[in-house]
């Protein structure tokens, strides 16, 4: 939290762009970048500049062709972005930073409790056979995509998927939990809102992760206006943290996997700043 006393700690005006990685942040990321392939010419691309280019796109939300000239060409940055989202590099970077964040907080690497929720976002003007189709969320009255995220009790992203907005929360939640693939075996409790209640989601959870107890946190029928609900506020805060990246203001991506890659990149940005500027 910014205060008069600690505001200077968050100052990034000494960087070329505020989105650039500091030396400390790059020191955490550099060992996780895959080396160049064997054979052929030596790699001439400066990998730190590639990551800075991705962070620029993520933070400002600009078009790929609007990348500043002092960063690598958009074809280079986009090519590495596509490669790293396909070969699992972003997943590995995210997981390693997540473990470091948990250890810095004095927690075990694998959480025992998590919170799940979704966010519907409008899609940009796009169409054609080469895109993943959007859907219409009748409850939110939004045509676009849903970002389904799973966070721990500290608000750190554990896992996420992106799908059409017309998929119900209970079905999307099943996809989230089914694609964990045993990564967090000590998970015992899952907090969710009323969209996940009912026998369908509980039966699905019994098949996927039988040891997990689902707890529905409901809003009181007599409550008026905004109220902070136990546990559920954690995931809402995470959406607010990720929403600081303007690339996530709308669904700009043609493919769900690229939307997920930017979501994971936003979480990487968040964890790097937490690790290099602890409260």
Task: Provide a brief overview of the structure.
With 279 residues, the protein is α/β, with parallel strands linked by helices. The protein has 8 helices and 6 strands. The longest helix is centred in the last third of the chain and has 21 residues, at 256-276.
Describe this entry's structure for a reader.
It is a single chain. With 279 residues, the protein is α/β, with parallel strands linked by helices. It contains 8 helices and 6 strands; from the N terminus they run ααααββββαβαβαα. Strands 1, 2, 3, 4, 5 and 6 form a 6-stranded mixed beta sheet that branches. The longest helix has 21 residues.
Topology:
Elements (H helix, E strand, L loop, with lengths): L22 H7 L17 H14 L13 H14 L1 H16 L8 E10 L12 E3 L4 E11 L4 E8 L4 H10 L10 E4 L6 H10 L4 E4 L15 H11 L13 H21 L3
Parallel strand pairs: 1-5, 5-6
Antiparallel strand pairs: 1-3, 2-3, 3-4
User: Main beta sheet, described?
Assistant: 6 strands, mixed
Mean pLDDT over the residues: 91
Residue fraction in strands: 5-15%
**What percent of residues adopt helix (DSSP H or I)?**
25-40%
Name the shape in a single word.
globular
The low-confidence parts are: none
């Amino acid at each position: 939290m910014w205060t008069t006393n600690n505001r200077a700690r968050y100052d990034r005006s000494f960087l070329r762009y505020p989105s650039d990685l500091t030396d400390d942040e790059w020191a955490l990321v550099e060992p996780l970048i895959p080396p160049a392939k064997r054979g052929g010419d030596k790699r001439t691309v400066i990998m730190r500049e590639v990551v800075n280019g991705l962070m620029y796109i993520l933070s400002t939300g600009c078009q790929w062709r609007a990348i500043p000239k002092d960063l690598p060409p958009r074809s280079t940055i986009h090519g590495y972005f596509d490669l790293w989202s396909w070969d699992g590099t972003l997943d590995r970077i995210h997981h390693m930073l997540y473990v470091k964040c948990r250890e810095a907080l004095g927690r075990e690497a694998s959480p025992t409790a998590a919170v799940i929720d979704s966010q519907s976002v409008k899609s940009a003007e796009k169409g054609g056979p080469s895109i993943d189709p959007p859907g219409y969320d009748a409850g939110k009255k939004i045509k676009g995509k849903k970002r389904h995220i799973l966070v721990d009790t500290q608000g750190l992203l554990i896992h996420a998927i992106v799908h059409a907005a017309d998929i119900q929360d209970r079905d999307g939640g099943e996809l989230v939990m089914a694609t964990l693939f045993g990564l967090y075996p000590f998970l015992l409790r899952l907090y969710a809102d009323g969209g996940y209640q009912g026998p369908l989601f509980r039966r699905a959870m019994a098949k996927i992760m039988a040891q997990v107890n689902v707890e529905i946190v409901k809003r009181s029928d007599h409550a008026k206006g905004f109220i902070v609900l136990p546990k559920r506020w954690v995931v809402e805060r995470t959406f607010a943290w990720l929403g600081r990246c303007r690339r996530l203001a709308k669904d700009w991506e043609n493919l769900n996997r690229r939307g997920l890659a930017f979501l994971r990149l936003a979480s990487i940005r968040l964890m790097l700043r937490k690790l290099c500027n602890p409260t």
